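Operator note (shift B, R.M.): manual run for PucR C-terminal helix-turn-helix domain-containing protein requested after the automated queue skipped it. Running by hand, logging everything below so the morning shift can see what happened. Input copied straight from the record, untouched. If output looks odd, do not overwrite the archive copy; leave it for review.
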Amino acid sequence: MLTSDPAADCAGSCHRQLHNRFDDLTRRHDLETALAESLGGGSDFADLFGVIVDRARHTLWLFDTRGGEVASSVARVGGLTTPKASAILEDVIRTVSRTSTPAVVDARVSVGPARRYLVDRVVNGTDVVGWLVMAEVRHPFDRFDRHFVERAAAYLSMHHRLHRAVRRSISDLTVELADRLIKGHSETVELREEADRLGVDLTVFKVVVLVDDSRVVGKLGDATTLARRLSARTRADVIGTRTAHGIALLVDVNEGDRHGVVDFIKRAVLALSPKDGVQAGISAVCSPVDISDAYAEACEVVECLDRFDADHSRVVTAHDLGPARVLVANGNIASIRRYVQHTLGALWNSGEDEQVLLDTLVEFSHSGHSVRKTATAMAVHENTVRQRISRVKKLTGLDVASDPSDQLAVHTALTIVTLRNRPHPLWQNRNTRTDGVRSVIPRPSPV
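Run finished. Output pasted below as returned.
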């Protein structure tokens, strides 16, 4: 008759326990080492999540706080439907909020073969930024699975905090770089080396956008946020900084179609602006060494807008204003009023249909002083345009048909007039009037 040896049985049991404990510690050590090496090696999120997936026995999902799927291992293992995060998180939020360990949640919905879920939070400080979910399918959860989810969530949290800190540091350095560029420091070796480290190309041409948001504080965000939004809309590299005059943005552009690219940026800025309260000036395309001059140019545009209040947001380029920019930004306002009155005042006092004459002047200037193009744009005969231009000469003494000085004077005066709380006739799309004549400016009053 065979009998067992209690001492031998006890020794065997202890040996198995020690062996299992050793295996468990080895697995924990291997997991910790792999996660630490991935995080310490500067891996991006996809690489870190890949390391986690490679060592997981079960399927994993990472959800954001709204229940949207951020990443999963389903593509690698296949055969499992993504669960509804809301069905899992409703129970787990109450449980996990009271403990630091992962929570086990029974599958309440008949979606896929999962029986239970292990869930832990991904945090940034005290804020929950996501949820890591493991599904129990073929094998039941064991103690290591709980440890696995806890450590994976911890490393995802550390990765999130680390990269947010890095982004903030890069953002601060980029803001400082933009500030130094608009102050004219682009030629220093130190600044060029710093730009290279930040990935900012100081060899490409740029456009400076100055956004005066003093009347809508908080709606546009800080310089970094607005630069990111403009970059997304224009698909160009943009950096920004806040100055005494507003948010200055430096947009990388190609040197090719200078007017076309400036107009494109103008439309993008206008699309990002609220309907009222914002006024922005945009410089011409400039070389890297002329950024400070371009910033001064954008400041002059905003100064022009400051002199004439408006009840709507305005985005204006230096090219839109032409030579009127220098006059309005730097001149005496009383002298500017007298200049406009002297140039166009006779039309206001003529008692005739000055609106038609003004519309014709605007279209004539817009078309490059071409009678044919003006007639086509206004749907009238060419002789009608000539008669109106002749009438303008008779009333004002200005020969806009052939005298370049008079053409410049009229263009400048019209620009100043239309800065007054109305769109500029040479910038905006023109509307069609019921009488067939396209009205490009409202009936003006003296400045």
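Quick read of the result: Residues 338 and 447 are 8 Å apart (CA to CA). The first strand starts at residue 59 and ends at 64.
Leaving this for review. - R.M.
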